Amino acid sequence: MSPRQVILEARALERRFVTARPLFREATVVHAVSGVDLAVEEGETFAIVGESGCGKSTLARVLTRLIPASGGSVRYAGRDLGGLKPAQIRALRREVQFIFQDPFSSLNPRMTVGALIEEPLRIHRIGTGPERRARVAQLLERVGLPAQAAGRYPHEFSGGQRQRIGIARALASGPKVVVGDEPVSALDVSIQAQVVNLLADLKREFGLTLVIIAHDLAVIRHMADRVAVMYLGQIVELAPAADLFEVPRHPYTEALVSAIPLPDPGARRARARVAGELPDPTAPPAGCRFHPRCPYAIGRCRTDAPQLSPRDAGGRQVACHRAEELALAGLGSVAAARSPAARKRFDLYRQARAAQAQTDQPPAEGGPIQQGD
Amino acid sequence: MSQPLLEVQDLAIRIRGTGRNLVDGVSFGVMPGETLCIVGESGCGKSLTALALMGLLASPPLEIAGGKALFQGQDLLGLTRAQFSRLRGDRLAMIFQEPMSALNPALRIGEQIAESVRRHRGASHRAARARALEMLEKVRIPAPETRLDEFPHQLSGGMRQRAMIAMALANDPALIVADEPTTALDVTIQAQILDLMRRLRDEAGTALIMITHDLGVVAEMADKVAVMYAGRVVETGTMAQVFGDPQHPYTIGLMSSMPAFGAGAGRLVTIPGMVPPISAMPPGCRFASRCPFRLPRCEAPPPLVQAGDHQAACWRAPLDALEVTA
Lengths: 373, 326
Hints:
The complex is a heterodimer of chains A (373) and B (326).
Chain A: E1 6-18, E2 29-41, E3 45-49, H1 56-63, E4 71-76, E5 79-80, H2 86-95, E6 96-99, H3 103-106, H4 113-123, H5 129-142, H6 159-172, E7 177-181, H7 189-206, E8 209-214, H8 217-223, E9 226-231, E10 234-240, H9 241-246, H10 251-258, H11 299-303, E11 317-318, H12 340-359
Helix pairs in contact in A: 4-5, 4-6, 5-6, 6-7
Chain B: E1 6-15, E2 23-30, E3 35-39, H1 46-53, E4 62-71, E5 74-75, H2 81-87, E6 92-95, H3 99-102, H4 109-121, H5 125-138, H6 144-148, H7 157-169, E7 175-179, H8 187-204, E8 207-212, H9 215-221, E9 224-229, E10 232-238, H10 239-244, H11 249-257, E11 305-307, E12 310-312
Parallel strand pairs in B: 3-8, 3-9, 6-7, 7-8
Antiparallel strand pairs in B: 1-2, 1-4, 4-5, 9-10, 10-12, 11-12
C-alpha cells in the first residue's frame, strides 16, 4: 500500500462528559474518548468498531467537530479544529459531513425533501436558486429516488429511502470526508445491501473519504480498508480490515470476531470468548481496561496500561502486552465452502439480476414512494 | 414419528375490516424438543405469527382471519383470555426482544419469577423463591442471591435477558417462543445468550420457535427454518436443506445481500426495490415485483411445493435455469 495523504488526524484526543453534580457528592466523569490517536488517509474507508458504550459515536462527533474535544487535537487537512470560530466551523461543514443512523430524527419533518437537500447549498451560498434545484434533482436521482421526491416530506418515505435522503443531503455541499454513524444498522438486510452498494459507488464517483462507525462486523469487513477497534474509550487495535479479521492480535478483537454468528451451518459456532459485560465507564479498570474480561490477562495487565504500538510493516497497531506471544483465532479458513447447489443458485440469481437491470426499466432502485406510510 | 408439539395450519391475520391478510396461509409444525427459526425482514409477519400463538395479538385492530394452531391437541387460536393466561408462562413461554418492556419495572426480579411459579404450580412462597434462585443460577447471573432482590432497571441489558429466560423456563415449558431475543444485544453478549439458550434447551428438551431477521442466528440455532416474506412462508425445510440448496428467489436474494466473510470486496448482489405496502400487495406471488425470475404465471399465488428436498412457494421451483425451458 502506498502511503497516502492524511486528511483527518486525532492526537491524544479526549472527550469527557461530566454529569450534573448531585448535592453533597462529586460529579461523575465519563471518559468517553480517552487518548485516541489515529490518522485517516485520503480516499480510504476507515471504520471504527466496538460495542455499545465504547465511545465510537462520541469519537465520530469529536472528529467532525459536532462536539468539541476536552483534550488533544483533531486536524483536518492539516488545520487544527480546536480553536475554530463558529463561522469557521460552518465552513468546515462544507467539507466534512455526517450521516446519522436514524435519518428520521435528523431530518426536519416540516421541511420538504427538496428543501432539506438544498439547505446545505443555501447555507454555503452555492449556486443560484434554479441551479440549486437542478442539483437537488440530480442528487435525488443519484441516490436512487425519483425527482418528485423533492416535493414530499420525510415521513412519506421508508427507512431505506430516508437514509438515501440523508446521504443526498450529506453530499450536497460537495464534501471531501463523510462520517457515517451506523449508517446502515437500522436497515433490513436487503435494503442494507442497497445502501452499502450506494455508498461504495458514491465514494468512488465523488472521491470521498469515508469514516464509518458500526457494530456490524460483516458490514465493516465488506466496506472498510482499515479498522480501529475501540474498547472503553480507547483504540485497542488498528489494522487493515482483511488482516484484522483473519488474524486478530488483540484478545478483544478475537472475542468480537469469534462472537459473530456466521450465516453458514457448516462454519464454526459463534463462541462467547469473554465472560461478563462492559465495566462501568465512570470507573474504568486500572491497567489494561480489558483485563477483567480477558482470558489471557497476566499480572502486568492489571497494573500497567498498554500503549498502542507504532505501525508495523503491515500497517498494524495493537495495545496489548502479550500481542507478540499470543496466537489468536480469527476467521481464518472460514471462507465457507458453500454447497455446489447453493453456489449454482447464487450464480443464477446474479445473472438474473444483471439481466433484470438491463432489460426492464425498474422504478428507482430505492423503490416507489408510499403514500401515507 | 411422534406427534408434533405444535401444528399451525393456514394461519391468517388481518386488520379488522380490510381485505388483504398481513399473515396469509402460514403453516408449520414443531416437534417436541425441536428448534424452528422463522426468518424474514421487517413486516414479513414473523412477529405477528408469534404474538398470535401466544394470544397477544393487539385485537382490535388485528384479528385472526383463519387457520388453526394445535398445541398438544388444543387449538390456541380458539382459547379464551382466561385459558390463555393459564397456559402462558406454564407450558408455553415467551422471550421478547426488549426485556425492559416485558419485565414489570416495579417488581423485584425474584418476585416476578416466583409469582409465575406460585401461580401455575401452586408452590409456597418459600418454594417459589427457592425456584427463582435456582433459575437465576441456571442462567448464570452472577451473585444470584443479591439479584433476586433487585429491580429490572438495576440490571444490564444482557442480565435482564438472562432474567427473562429464567422466568420463561421456571415452569419447564414444552415450547418457548423467542422473538428476536438477541437483536438488542452487543455481539459478545449475543454469543453468551445464544450459548445459554442452546444449553438450556438441550438440557430440558424444550422446543423453541425463534423469530429472527439474522441468518447468522438461524445457522447457530435452527433444526428447521421457515423463510417468510410479506406475510407468507416462501420456503421451508431443515437448516441444512435451506442453506445448502436454497430454492426461493427471495431466500437466495437475501443470502446474496449479506456481506459474507471471505468473499471480500466487490458489489453486493441485491434485491431491488422494497416490500410493497399491504394496500398495494399483488394478489399473486407477493415477491413478484422484486423478483428477477418472474413470469406471467406469477400473477397467480404460488403454492408451497416440493423443490429439491424441501419446499418452496415459487412457480419456478425447482430453480435450475435462468430461462424457463418447459
